[in-house]
Amino acid sequence: MGKKDKERLSDLMPLNDDKKRKKIDKKVYEEELVQLQIELVKLQNWAKEKNKRILIVLEGRDTAGKGGLIKTITQHLNP
User: Fold this and answer.
1) Phi and psi for 21 in degrees, rounded to 5?
2) pLDDT of the residue at 6
């Protein structure tokens, strides 16, 4: 993750008074999600054109929401 990406995340998720991340506004979340899904579709198309494979690893504790995340980010991808 580059410096610009970290700054962008910091802008999206500012710290509250307890130095904990605030929740992202739903509208902002939806807008960012659409942009990220577009980038994944572009990546998928590139991989198909170049005959490449992609591996994405998600790590988290049980009940951390990995299943929901996977469903959300892959909903516009071809299997």
Assistant:
1) -70, 135
2) 65
